[in-house]
Amino acid sequence: MSIRPVKRIVQSKPTLEGAGVRLRRAFGFGDTTDFDPFLLLDDFRNNDPADYLAGFPWHPHRGIETITYVLAGNVDHGDSLGNKGSLGAGDVQWMTAGSGILHQEMPKGDPQGRMHGFQLWANLPASLKMTRPRYQDVKGADVPEVADDDGTRVRVICGSFWGKSGPVDGVAADPRYLDVFVPPGVRKRLPVETSRNAFAYIFEGSGRFRDASEPRAVQTDPVGPAVGPAEAGHHDGPDLENRTLVVFDRGDEVVVEAGERGLRFLLVSGQPIEEPVAWYGPIVMNTEDELRQAYAELRAGSFIK
């Protein structure tokens, strides 16, 4: 077994999206080669309703899949095909935009005003860019959770892990999407296929991801200054703040050591598509000509197939 080295550690960046939703972007709208087949990860955890209630009114998507995972609060959604519903705590929605869809997502907090969740974008290969749109809405109770003897717990949203398979299937990127909790003081080895790109996104507790040599520390609070590229390259640098993205190099396992409060993180991996990406806003194609055609159809009213 070979430990996946930590390629880099970065902080998610404050971003304004939709009609004025304040969120944090872990990656996206740049060079996403290290994340292929994934394009973007947004963290929309917020405790102030004024920062999220404006929501994400009607907007288009084509050529991608979006994965919404809610931890607290609700997200009401609807689309141009007549689908509508609401995602609650623990629920997952996997939307294949395919040839094109118009939809809206309107977050609503829980009784304490909290709205916590994530949205991940996965690319579609050229052969499926114009596939028929579809939804997979999954209730939290239907997401399997597997536990190890040391108290480690894993919710399997998509893919297979420790003998359990997630309820989301038929996804082009063949991803594995896990919500992992490692108890205080536990050191855990988690398998990841060597051929896949993989990353972790930490959102509770503290701990360290180990390289083949020394551990790289991540700590979610107290919140401190972000670490720039020069500092991130050193094993003995300071602990990092909340909303930490850990990008892994090649190997077949990830090794994590939880701190005194335990550690909870998303562990996501997928098989690279390795195709050209032409991307503007919510539409992702393979060529600039395809991108221009998509926006021309949007203006002409022929976007929905």
Please characterize this protein's 3D structure.
The chain has 305 residues and is mainly beta. It has one domain: Jelly Rolls (Sandwich), CATH 2.60.120.10. The protein contains two helices and 24 strands. The protein has helices at 229-232, 288-300, and strands at 6-11, 13-17, 21-27, 38-43, 56-61, 64-72, 74-79, 84-87, 92-96, 101-108, 116-123, 134-138, 145-147, 153-158, 160-161, 164-165, 176-182, 187-191, 197-210, 215-219, 244-248, 253-270, 278-280, 283-285. The longest helix has 13 residues, at 288-300. It starts with 5 loop residues before the first strand and ends in a 5-residue tail after the last helix.
Topology overview:
Elements: E1 6-11, E2 13-17, E3 21-27, E4 38-43, E5 56-61, E6 64-72, E7 74-79, E8 84-87, E9 92-96, E10 101-108, E11 116-123, E12 134-138, E13 145-147, E14 153-158, E15 160-161, E16 164-165, E17 176-182, E18 187-191, E19 197-210, E20 215-219, H1 229-232, E21 244-248, E22 253-270, E23 278-280, E24 283-285, H2 288-300
